[in-house]
Design a protein that fits this description.
There is one protein chain. The strands form three sheets. This protein has a nine-stranded mixed sheet. The protein has two domains: about 240 residues, QueA-like; about 70 residues, Thrombin, subunit H (Beta Barrel). The relative contact order is 0.21. Strand 8 and strand 9 form a beta hairpin. Helix content is about 20%, strand content about 30%. With about 325 residues, it is of the alpha/beta class. The protein starts with about 30 loop residues before the first strand and ends with a strand.
């Protein structure tokens, strides 16, 4: 099994990158990949319910994207607020970094923030003198490949219909296809993982095994843990859901309730402990997400599926079409 990063690359025409959502959530196309027979079918997401086994429990990530992108009052500094360490203390990405060295200040909405620490990653720990009203001053942080600012449509469509736990800076995109009607018809349960900006970070080393994964916070309720442990067949909606379930399995041998964090990096070869099927979007070349999917379905089979998706003009990335791996 290859650990070469170059083996997870592929050519994608720019026009196949979905920079706006489909007219309807459930109208997205869905490539169905059956591992046992190594077959590919072309369906739409509205077929999802009929394709999964009747005993399935669908597990979804109910994190909610926060308006985490803010600008200094003079417009010179952009901050992406990654994680609230306290109501006034934020771990942040900053541009340009040279204007935010240790001890330097920034003013956002009249509130002063001071750099308390510069991390090895380049991120800053910034303490503000008051709580920022992000709903008023913040903007939705769209993925960089959208190459545009967020608009009113994104306020609704870059959230899942079941988003309820604020804390993410990127959407769990496999869940964007669900409508309330489809969700009501399939047995389901929620976990929470707050998606960080690292989800877009490319692997920059030649050997996959040398990549350091970003850390993300997650939580599982008592009720969710019990239902997932008892489920005969688990369909994970998205790679973030997979990371929660497999972290629990790796650490405890079962799904356990509580709050924790994970930097699990799933890539071939990997033995999955609790996920039987996976719903996922089409991911960036050389990304950790593509490597996770390749571990679930076999790298060569995923390569063939992606080539087929490109030939059939599927839409890629966050607002794109999806793949159901059975």
């Amino acid at each position: 099994m290859s650990t070469r990063t170059a083996d997870y690359d592929f050519q994608l025409p720019d026009e196949l990158i979905a920079r706006h959502p489909a007219p309807r959530r459930d109208a997205s196309r869905m490539l169905v990949l059956r591992r046992a027979g190594r077959t590919i079918e072309h369906r739409t997401f509205s077929d999802f319910e009929s394709l999964i086994p009747k005993e399935s429990l669908v597990v979804l990530n109910d994190t909610k994207v926060i308006p985490a992108r803010v600008f200094s009052d003079d417009g010179r500094i952009e901050l992406l607020l990654l994680e609230a360490l306290s109501p006034t203390l934020w771990q942040s990405m900053v541009r340009p970094g040279k204007k935010m060295r240790l001890g330097m200040e920034v003013v956002v909405d009249g509130i002063v923030g001071r750099v308390q620490q510069v991390l090895e990653s380049g991120e800053r720990i910034i303490e503000f003198t008051e709580v920022l009203d992000l709903d008023r001053v913040g903007k939705l942080p769209l993925p960089p490949y959208f190459e545009r600012e967020a608009d009113l449509e994104d306020q609704e469509r870059y959230q899942t219909v079941y988003a309820r736990e604020p804390g993410a800076v990127a959407a769990p995109t496999a869940g964007l296809h669900f409508t309330p009607e489809i969700l009501a018809r399939v047995p389901h349960e929620f976990v929470t993982l707050h998606v960080g900006a690292g989800t877009f970070k490319p692997v920059q080393v030649d050997d996959v095994s040398q990549h350091t994964m970003h850390e993300e916070r997650f939580s599982v309720s008592e009720a969710a843990a019990a239902r997932i442990n008892a489920a005969p067949f688990v369909v994970a909606a998205g790679t973030t859901t997979v990371r929660v379930l497999e972290t629990c399995m790796r650490n405890h041998g079962r799904i356990v309730a509580g709050r924790s964090s994970t930097n699990i990096f799933i890539h071939p070869p990997y033995q999955f402990g609790r996920v039987n099927a996976l719903l996922t979007n089409f991911h960036l070349p050389k990304s950790t997400l593509l490597m996770l999917v390749s571990a679930f379905a076999d790298r060569e089979l995923i390569r063939q599926a992606y080539e087929e998706a490109v030939r059939e003009r599927y839409r890629f990335f966050s607002y794109g079409d999806c793949m159901l791996i059975l």
